[in-house]
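Students often ask what a 'structure token' actually looks like in practice. Rather than answer in the abstract, let us consider Type II secretion system protein L, a protein of 402 residues. Its sequence is given first.
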Amino acid sequence: MSESLNLFFPLGEAQPIKWRRDSDTPLVPETDGEWISPQAAQDMLTQWPKFDAIRVFFPGEWAGVRQVELPRVSRKQAEKIIPALLEEDLCEDIDDLHFSILKIDEKLATVAVINHQKMQHLTQWLHQGEILATTLLPDWLALPEGHLLVSGERCLLRTKQWQGWSAESSLAPYLLKAQLRDSDSVSQLGVYGELPMALAAALDSCGIEKTTSETLPAPQTTVVGLLCGRWKPRVNYQKQWERWRPTITSLIVLVGVMTVERLVSLWSVTERAQQTRTVAEESFRHLFPEQRRIVNLRAQLNVALREAENGVAEDELLVILPLIVETLESKGILKQVDVQGMKFDQLRQELHLRLRADDFATFEALRENLATVFSVKQDALLQDNERVTGGMTLKRKQNNAS
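Now compare that with the structural description of the same chain:
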């Protein structure tokens, strides 16, 4: 269902504005009324659904529709030169007038002309009522072509698409004769309202056939109008902000809360990760004390494990380690030596130990006791502060291996 709102501004600016709701659904009746102020319009519009079109019609006396020949130029260029082309035909300064192109047919342009003060009055009223009009036209363009409307003391006539006028009833007969005298004019008019005697006589004298109708049709739809250039409708951002401010504020608060929760969660995860890394580094240093500097814990741990394992078969290592413990415990030397690191060579079946003891004599006793079970190769010993550090390579003797 399509529904439109049509507004009719009066000739006197202090008079109420008439409105009419039209629908393309036959079961929905047209309604009309008056607004005495923009606030009254705003209060009522808030109770109505959104309209597909809002057409505004003002007194035809406020604007003139003229035709002018154009050179071969684009529409954008035509908008700039039309005021100068019409300057000699107008009584007012073109700087005080608003020009709107209604139609361009080859070299002929149909142009509506209205004073800026009138446009200011119209657009200001619509702005105060928060009405976003789709078209703004003289009131006689609300009629179908070939129709005459008599409403109180005013008459509206539309003969062709862009031909017509609005005037007081006393002037209507003279204007009617002047326009219908043209041989290319209409031969029949549809009449709405009661014709004054002078106007009826003028129609008869011009030989115009009259058909009377009591139902006034809905205004004709058009996409053109005077709302262009500096008078093009613009959204009232302040009103839009006031309307959407609660929703936007709620969204901002919601996003803020979610962001804070996310940051707190991220901080908590970071703290747990740091604590886990600290524990892992302490365990790594305890297992591999020679690794004093940790750059990449994962990579260093993998390298240390590979060096310790040096292969997948560990049967020989499982035999060597108990022999070392058993031999040293029997001699009471085990607790006098610290093992700093070990490496098992699977290919040679040798165990490399990095050891630390209190003195050189302990290393000598250690070598002599291990030599009863292993072939021992001792590296050079180094004095490290008050302790001695050195390395030994052990391999089981043949009689023990068997």
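One point worth highlighting: The longest strand covers residues 387-396. Ask yourself how you might have guessed this from the sequence alone, and why that guess would often be unreliable.
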